[in-house]
Design a protein that fits this description.
elongated; 1 helix; about 25% strand; four-stranded antiparallel β-sheet; Lipase, subunit A; about 5% helix; 3 domains; mainly beta; single chain
């Protein structure tokens, strides 16, 4: 009889009887499951990885990856409020630079896949492509390009005149980062434009054929208003100063109700039924 083998077996049996084996799982070593599921004692962080509860996951990103962002700035001036530059994508030893809770932070892996103007989730810093920011608005969010107000590089009809905001307990708060205004090509005569879906609405800007996709207002047709987007989608705020009301947006009289005409085409193709 092998006494050494018997002794070893008794030791293992004793260990199993007195306690359970608990593996030492490294934070961020595995991905979250469906619905953000993680093992007991772990939580799903913004980067889609599981971290132990009570540990601030933003500091647990790995620095052992093979590729990263440039360590020298290749574009100018976007304010840095944190550890890297999210517009230039510079300053990270690996991964990519995102804006998280109002400050720039290096995240492992790659940025998201959603492009400018696409609806996104503001609670997920990696929802939009690198260099973009998910701006909370209208109860959801949209991807905006980060920019520097002092050196506007938005191009086209856009401008760096928006302020990136972060979600707070009381709503939203401004951050140091600028955003390029979204320029949308949509149909302001429609109540639900394909390129500007609810909860947004398409409105004429009053400058030529330019349109904007903004949070849809809730003022009923015929009621008083101040701004174009105060009105429901398909309508806009028009009329003489001091007497503006929500009127149906149109391009031809055929779109208006009987007895009304599509008027005020002086600044572009869009008028209103009156």
């Amino acid at each position: 009889m092998d006494l050494h083998r018997i002794s070893a077996a008794l030791f293992v049996a004793s260990a199993l009887a007195t306690g359970c084996y608990t593996p030492n799982i490294t934070g961020g070593a595995f991905s979250c499951g469906d619905g953000g599921a993680c093992p007991s004692g772990f939580r799903c962080a913004a980067n889609g990885r599981c971290y132990s509860s009570g540990v601030d996951a933003q500091f647990e990103h790995s620095v052992t990856c093979d590729s990263g962002t440039s360590t020298t700035s290749v574009c100018s001036g976007i304010p840095i409020s944190g550890e890297c530059n999210p517009g230039c994508q510079s300053g990270c030893a690996c991964g990519w630079c995102a804006v998280v809770d109002g400050a720039s932070q290096c995240l492992e892996g790659a940025g998201g896949t959603k492009d400018v103007g696409v609806i996104c989730d503001p609670s997920r810093p990696s929802d939009c492509k690198a260099g973009l920011y998910c701006q909370p608005e209208c109860g959801t969010g949209r991807c905006y390009k980060l920019c520097d107000p002092s050196n506007d590089t938005c191009g086209g009809q856009s401008a760096c005149d928006q302020k990136a905001r972060k979600v707070t307990d009381g709503g939203t708060a401004a951050t140091p980062f600028g955003l390029c205004r979204l320029v949308a090509s949509c149909d302001p005569t429609a109540t639900n434009s394909a390129t500007c879906p609810a909860p947004f609405g398409c409105y004429p800007t009053g400058v030529g054929a330019q349109t904007e996709c903004d949070c849809a207002g809730n003022i009923q047709p015929g009621q008083s208003c101040l701004f174009l987007s105060d009105c429901q989608a398909g309508y806009s705020c028009n009329g003489p100063a001091g007497g503006t009301t929500c009127l149906q947006t149109c391009t031809t009289t055929g779109q208006c109700a009987a007895g009304s005409t599509c008027t005020n085409h002086t600044t572009g193709p869009f008028g209103y039924c009156m």
